[in-house]
Amino acid sequence: MTGKAKPKKHTAKEIAAKIDAATTNRGGGKAGQKDRLGQDKGGHAKLECPHCKITAPDMKSMQIHHEARHPKLPFEPEKLNNLHCSTGAAEATTSKPKPGIRGSLKK
């Protein structure tokens, strides 16, 4: 008989890894593209380079990009476009008041 040393049940670590792989956005498809481009406030792309319009999730990544792609220009963090800030401010001012319970507005 072979296979006596094989475990017959899944481990908790393996099950947790499968759940994580199934529920985490890995960046594929239209949802992943939207997430990378920072079109929604919850997207990964927070900063945009003013020179080439490439996006980055944080200041350190943008600094690495700037040193690699624009070595002759000085890195100025205040000139970076914050995609989360600009999207949220415009959305908050143009949205309608949210309805109350079952779609009716409370007065």
From TrEMBL:
Compositional bias, Basic residues, is annotated for 1-11
Recorded GO cellular component terms are:
cytoplasm; nucleus
Q: Which cellular compartments is it found in?
A: Cytoplasm; Nucleus
Which spans does this entry mark as compositional bias, Basic and acidic residues? Answer: 32-46
**Per the annotation, which location comes first and is thus the protein's main one?**
cytoplasm
Which portions of the sequence form the region Disordered? 1-46, 86-107
Keyword annotations for this protein, in alphabetical order, are: Cytoplasm, Nucleus
PANTHER family, per database record: GEO09665P1-RELATED (PTHR21213), ZINC FINGER PROTEIN 706 (PTHR21213:SF0)
The protein here is known as Uncharacterized protein
Q: Which organism is it from?
A: Zizania palustris
